[in-house]
Amino acid sequence: MKTVPGPMSNAAWREKTELLRVLGHPTRLALLTALADGPKCVGDVQELVAVRQANVSQHLAVLRREKIVDWHESGKLRCYYIARPALVKALMAFIAGDYAVVQRSAEWVRASARTHAAGAKSSRDRTCACQPRTKSAGPDRVAHWNRVYRAKPDADLSWYQDRTPLSAKILDRLALPLTAPVIDVGGGGPAAFAGELLDRGFTDVSVLDVSAAGLQRCRERLGDRARQVHWLRADITQFTPRRQYDFWHDRAVFHFLTTAADRAA
Ligand SMILES: C[S@@+](CC[C@H](N)C(=O)[O-])C[C@H]1O[C@@H](n2cnc3c(N)ncnc32)[C@H](O)[C@@H]1O
């Protein structure tokens, strides 16, 4: 049988109230949701929560003061991770229902940062220390797709379709439950698939893309509904899923993976 906690001192109540005050801020909740998927550097967090970098750093500092997050530094990169996974797990259960919170120990983050530092070409390399790197990692790929999305309107993107009837047909056939976790790989740009999923009432939609500009374009297309999507900026050849997805969708992405190394990855 559960026991009711005994009376707390005023100081203990004040401590709890302060913790709730720190957590009760939209940006900080968004930051914790982004970090719950796994450790990230400020740049990557910023892309996910779409807040100015100065604000992101400020809010992360508040969370760090309360020891809810911590960081590991390598060169000029600071890699943030959840320092109180049990608390954040409870918070995520409240915010998003059943949500797998990735727990990474400080040792894991340090080891990953060391590997990163060994592979980074310079301290200006903005790839997050937490993401595994390989030699085939493509800064060129990132730059290429960012350039495409910054330069071209929807009508000039040869692959663009306002609706994607084939993907819709596949969804019809699969008849997945609406709570099934679904990921659209390379789903950035004005891609229609995330919207199709939300239109149908899917509640656990993730979009992954190597290009921050591509993710931003997709967010803009979705407008307010963008908040319902988990955004992941990653190269699929280096992506280690932190959770399971029932359905992976690829439209016009995997055919770019033409080398044996990329395919194997
Ligand atoms: C041809 S577009 C297709 C976009 C979208 N799937 C659609 O149907 O409109 C290819 C997309 O894949 C992304 N991409 C290319 N290589 C990638 C990689 N290795 N990992 C993740 N995304 C990648 C690009 O940024 C771009 O958004």
> Which parts are unreliable, with pLDDT below 50 for 5 consecutive residues or more?
119-137
What is the correct CATH architecture of the largest domain? 3-Layer(aba) Sandwich
Percent of residues in helical segments?
Answer: 40-55%
- Strand order in space, largest sheet: 6-5-4-7
Largest sheet: 4 strands, parallel
Topology, number of strands:
7
Features:
single chain; 265 residues; alpha/beta; Arc Repressor Mutant, subunit A; Rossmann fold; 11 helices; binds S-adenosylmethionine
Protein architecture, described:
The structure is a single chain. The protein has 265 residues and is of the alpha/beta class. The chain folds into two domains: 10-119, Arc Repressor Mutant, subunit A, CATH 1.10.10.10; 139-264, 3-Layer(aba) Sandwich (Rossmann fold). It contains eleven helices and seven strands. The protein has helices at residues 10-23, 26-36, 42-49, 53-65, 85-96, 106-119, 139-151, 165-174, 193-200, 212-222, 260-264; strands at 40-41, 69-74, 77-82, 182-185, 205-209, 229-233, 247-250. Helix 10 links the parallel strand 5 (205-209) and strand 6 (229-233). Helix 7 (139-151) packs parallel to helix 10 (212-222). The longest helix is centred in the N-terminal third of the chain and has 14 residues, at 10-23. The structure holds S-adenosylmethionine. The site of S-adenosylmethionine has 19 residues, from helix 7.
